Amino acid sequence: MSSPDGTAPPDRPDGTAAGQEEPKIEDLVHEDAGPTPRFEDLAEEHAEHEAELSAEVMTESGPEPAAADPAVAATGTAVATEPGKKMELGPVGHLGDRLFSAFARGSGGLVVLIVAFVGIFLLALAIPALADDKSSFLFSRIWEPGGDQPRFGIAAMFYTTVVSSIIAMLIAVPVAIGVALFITYYAPKRLAQPVAYAVDLLAAVPSIIYGLWGILFFAPILLPVINGLSDALGWIPLFEKPPGDNVGVVFTASVVLAIMILPVVTAISREIFAQTPIAHREGALALGATKWEMIRMSVLPYGRSGVVSASMLGLGRALGETVAVLIILSVPNGNDPWNSSIFAGGETFASKIANNAAEFDSPEKTGAYIAAGLVLFVVTFLVNSAARIIVDRSGPGGRRPRRKRGAGVAQGASS
Amino acid sequence: MTAIAENKPAYDGQALDLTGKSGARAFKNTLATVLIVLAFVIAMIPLLWILGTVISKGYHLLLSADWWSQSQRGITVRREGGGAYHAIMGTLIMSLITALIAVPIAVLGAVYLVEYGKGTRAARVVSFMIDILTGVPSIVAALFIYAVWITIFGFNRVGFAVSLSLVLLMLPVVLRSTEEMLKLVPDELREASYALGVPKWKTIMKVVVPTAFGGIVTGVMLGLARVMGETAPLLILVGYSKNINLNPFNGFMGALPTMINQDRTELALQPAADRVWAAALTLILLVLVLNVLARLVARFSAIKSK
Amino acid sequence: MSVNRLLRVGSVAVASLGVLALSACGSDPTPSGSSSPGSSTSSAGADCPQGTLNAEGSSAQKNAIDEVISKYNEKCADVTVNYNPTGSGAGIKQFNANQVDFAGSDSALKPDEMTAATKRCGGNPAIDLPMVIGPIAIAINVDGVDKFVLDGPTAAKIFQGTIKTWNDPAIAKLNPGVTFPSAPISVFFRSDESGTTENFTKYLKAAGGGAWTGEPAKKWTGTGAGKEKSAGVAEGVKSTKNSITYVEWSYAVDNKLTTAQIDTGSGTPVELSAESAGKALAAAKPAGTGSDLALKLDYATKAPGAYPIILATYEIACTKGLPAEKTALVKSFLSYFVSKDGQASLTDLNYAPLPAEIQTKVDAAIQAIS
Question: Does the record bear Lipid metabolism in its keywords (chain A) (predicted)?
Fold first, then answer.
């Protein structure tokens, strides 16, 4: 930071940056900006003063660097990203800026690298096993990996994983949004804080405990509910109850999963609802909106993207939960016909892998389970993309922060 | 947090008085209120039940000093005594290493997504990758690190390997929540800062991140809470030890989730069952303490942004 | 730089201080010598080395080895022994990957595993040491039934799914005077691959008179609903009426489940006890030749008073090739394990002690490790 000479910093981004083009362009930018280092120095010194003594900011700030730099910034980032679409407002081109930007980009790149590595590793293990598979991987429900004639398919696991997660989401998301709204806008202030803490605490309960509590304490209570539902709706195959009083069923696991993801979704939604600009809320109220209308018109649209992100994190946890599901679900044997009911047992991808991880004795067998893990990847990704597309398409105009920022950028471009 | 405080219920009354509401609107408003309160009640029942179970079954072991200062060396499932010191330290060490690696990457990654890469193809790729990462089950993350750390590099199973796999689980949680919080920082703040000639990186560090700090802390805590309770990576990557080991680069290490896992198969035996619930309660308390510390930090930095 | 940063740094410092304070006062619990009856005064190869021994494997012997470690530490306080009950397959895998010093397994090494193990031991063969004998109980939960008799064919039919209700004539014939409900039989099996399942299905195959159609395997091929680990099946039977399962004896005892007496054809049904399991073990023969100590159990035994469903678990160790200090540790611990003191502590935990003859052989093999 102390030496703003031109040669050192462009090398640094080269080492860490994820994108291949950016460092080059930054070199160019720097050369373009050759005659201005003095201004940059000044600006940085000013900026430091300003940040620390914000009260004096108005009087001290020099107009020249502020005016000179945006031009550099504008050309620089416009080329670096997508021409014409975007324009940075802040003065770019400082050493600090370049370093910071490189770190941020590097982190982004690191995430990509990590996922790519995980993906390559999974593929490398899964492909040989899949090549040996003697039955349809996607449509078979037999699972006999390893041996001379490996036969395995994910149909049954896929069904249980998806159904249990869907039920968990159907229960958890509406309740979580309700709780988040209650904490932010309905609860008396004295109650809101402790409740928020309590919900956060529940995210800390280890999943083993959810599993133990679920099977030992909760499942017996749920048995009458299961019996009632199957009596009323048993003619639908989804609700048909097999004989016996087994409580380790998909429905029980789903409800426990819902309770597990509730704190995650609630905590993030709460933070987001609380951030709704007070002007929006007051505006709605001033127009005579009821409290609910205020929430519907200003809070919910504002938080939509965040709530979806929170739900996706919750879904990720539900799809990938291992120990709790493993403890609760009973596993059907290979001889009985397949049962699609949510009142029957089953296995999810994660619980199956975890249950058998101790006995991975050959690469082919490991590969089969890894291939199942890979499917989980794909499922998660598809659901996430679908959710994002829905959010992007259905957002009612102008309220989402993304659009707002877009407006800000457009303003910058016109100046 | 601060925003909750800002919410002034006084406005509601005025709004209600100002308009002649139709019956339908009033009904909807009441219905919504009832549903929201109902959601709260529904959510609280199982949550309090779980907490109640854990506390009532686990608290008495926590009252003894031995619990906090002794290991389980030589204590079998049929015997009382010993403590969770080895597991508490193991959990703290491994999760703090995890946080030290994951939080900077996650926060900077979110800064990249919101402040630098917005709308670009590269950012979309990063975002896509994070979505995928949210779907990695802990067991798959653990198998991946096992393949890299042990099969390829030939190292031994150690606590640090667990931390590496937990990073994979913590990253998406912290990154996504931080991203959402950064998105909510009004552009007016950024513009004002730029207009004063403050460089972009300082704007981010001194204006954007502090404004979103409360939310970021919540995300970090959620991430930490999740990884502290994970069992599968611990089983595969370090192995449980009843003895004290504070070195994350050598030897088996105790941790609270694996301590629970060891004793949960013997719930029919009272000493083991006691330890299961006590270890769970300890884990919750650890997260609570970290939470309080983090919120103190958040509060101090919130003053600054004002 | 600023006040806030100071505060931030300050709270981090306070947090780390707290951690340090906690780290300063940790200790191991003091062994309560008084609680152990027959405190070891014998000299069973008790030179005490120092160091850490890591092991992993079978969960069937977890309670046994935990107890032995605890007892061993009363004698050799400077040795730390860790045992992770993750499963036999995992144990062998970690042993072959050089991650643990010895493994626990429910079955002897297979040829390809032996190849990998030989490589891990620097070209020296590994050895299977039978160490813990665990009887497997057939446990039931039926109202009003606290004495229950089964024979091989009937058990095979129940677990195969050909006998579906409790009031089946075959069951009634074995249990005269007991009234069974007409309810369906809920069978629970181990959903994870396990040595318990393998040994139990070996019994069903050997004594079932052809009623068991599958091959003995770690993975269950019969009927029923799967539960995770011994704890899962035991809990399943405990909480579900009219259910049955196979589970290690100690779990049946701890969960207070009714266990079946086995009619082996010797005349009177045999109740499960350390003594009756020991009798079956006496009929066992070494499966291999020379130093290989793997046991061949006779599941169809008709010896009077012998309970036929037992599970032998092994410790797998290198005969040579470990570093000297590890060799000393392995020898010291395992020879305590097989000694009279070590084996005696297992009876209280519902395991059967090794017969004296096998004990001597195993001890000789351990002393030969170098």
Answer: no
Q: Is C370 annotated as a binding residue?
A: no
Question: What dotted CATH number matches B67-301?
Answer: 1.10.3720.10
The CATH number corresponding to A133-405 among 1.20.1560.10, 1.10.1040.10, 3.40.1400.10, 1.10.3720.10 equals 1.10.3720.10
For residue range B146-198, what is the model confidence (pLDDT) as tens digits?
A: 888 887 888 888 999 999 999 999 999 899 889 988 988 888 999 999 999 88
Chains in contact with C, where contact means 3 or more Cβ–Cβ distances below 8 Å, are A, B
pLDDT digits (tens, 9 = 90+) for C47-59: 788 889 999 988 8
User: What are the tens digits of pLDDT across the range B58-87?
Assistant: 999 999 888 998 888 888 888 888 889 999
Please state the domain extents for chain B: 24-63, 67-301
pTM: 0.80
Q: Are residues C155 and C276 in the same domain?
A: yes
Residues C209 and C248 in one domain: yes
Q: Both C126 and C260 in a single domain?
A: no
Neighbours of chain B (3+ CB pairs under 8 A): A, C
Chain B hits for A310, CB-CB cut-off 8 Å, are: 177, 180
**Same domain for C140 and C266:** yes
Our count of domains for chain C comes to 2
Domain residues for C124? 51-132+285-295+311-368
Closest CA of chain C from A67, distance in Å: 28
Each of the 415 residues of chain A gets a pLDDT tens digit; together they read: 333 343 333 333 333 333 333 334 334 334 333 333 343 443 444 444 444 434 333 333 334 343 334 444 443 343 344 444 444 544 556 788 888 889 999 999 999 999 888 888 888 888 888 888 888 888 887 888 877 788 888 888 899 999 999 999 999 999 999 999 999 999 888 888 888 888 877 877 888 899 999 998 998 888 888 888 888 888 888 888 777 667 788 999 999 999 999 998 998 899 889 888 888 888 888 888 888 989 988 898 888 888 988 898 888 888 888 889 999 998 888 777 777 888 888 889 888 888 887 767 677 788 888 888 888 878 877 887 887 777 777 654 334 444 333 333 333 333 3
- Predicted complex ipTM: 0.80
Hey, are the CB atoms on B184 and A306 less than 8 Å from each other?
yes
What CATH number did the domain enclosing C270 receive? Answer: 3.40.190.10
The two tokens of residue C337 are 């394990």
Q: Do C341 and C360 fall within a single domain? A: yes
Per-domain residue ranges for chain A? 25-93, 133-405
Q: Would you tell me which residues 122-161 of chain B have a C-beta closer than 8 angstroms to some C-beta of chain C?
A: 150-151, 156-157
Our CA-based measurement puts residue C178 at a distance from the nearest CA of chain A, in whole angstroms, of 22
CB pairs under 8 A between A and B: 427
C197 plus C322 within the same structural domain? no
Do both C264 and C354 map to the same domain?
Answer: no
Tell me whether residue C106 is annotated as binding.
yes
Say if residues C284 and C352 touch (Cβ distance below 8 Å): no
| Residue C325 belongs to a domain | yes
Residues of A in contact with C235 (CB under 8 A): 215-216
Compute the residue count for chain B. 306
